[in-house]
Amino acid sequence: MRSQTCSFKSSKGWCCDQPAGQSGLCYWHDPDIDKCGHDVKADVEKWAASGKPLDGFQLARTDLTDIDLVNRGSREGYSCQGADFYRANMAEAHCFGLDLRGASLMKANLLRANLNCARLDGSNLLGADLARAGLENVDWGKELKQERLAYKERDPARRKSLFQEAEEVCRNVRKQCEKQGLFEVAGYFFKKEMRFRRYQMPKLSFRRWLSKIVDLFCGYGEDPLRVVIFSVLVIVSCALAYFALGTTQSNPIYPDVTGWQRYFYELLNAVYFSVVTFTTLGYGDISPHGVARFIAAFEAFLGSFTMALFVVVFVKKMTR
Hints:
Blueprint: H1 41-49, H2 145-152, H3 156-179, H4 183-199, H5 206-218, H6 224-245, E1 247-249, H7 260-278, E2 286-288, H8 292-318
């Protein structure tokens, strides 16, 4: 009688050809088989070397110390999508270029593991020990697993819990990247960390709105370009207000200009006055009147604050 084969089928359409147990799954894909005390490292390496994917492998709590899963001679690493490495000991593992999309590395020991060029999109990194792990050129993907689930979750308590987990993952990755000098990646995860913290606050709370404003202004200190864009928007907006409300000047600069050219020059004057006011230079050759005075006072206050913010953000980025 022909034995039944494993019913596992990967997202890419690959079907496992191993004999199945009573659960309909083989030894490698059955999550109910405890492999904690089994010496599986050599078998896993042999399986990968044979060219078959490691998709969906259930390797929770296994000892995979110094395992070699590098696909040498190929631009693409071994496929290990959706695998379960929960609490697995993968210290000093060689996982260069390994495709770990959707895999669970929750509380896995990745001490000094080589994860350079690995693909971790959608993987679960909650509680993973990434101390001194190689993290250069890692493809982190657009969303963390907890982040993706939180956006779909309708229960407020569960959604808050998922954002807490996502914040913890970002903090862990950020700290390890900072220690390795990967400051661009660290900055990226710092912004995500602060956003996930904001999502845990009540929607109508002052702290949440303040956090949102800081994010819009400067990306939590990681995006100086946002400060520049905000400054330009303020200058242009105030210039249009000055042009509409009118300004006065002691000596007309264009006494003989009429028609549309006069309005054009007046607009240039408004832009000039807006720049001078925003930068708090205050030459005094053009002065506002009426409501424009209050707009000028507000712009001067906002300009001094924005320039100080830009210096702080710029210095923070450059000193790295």
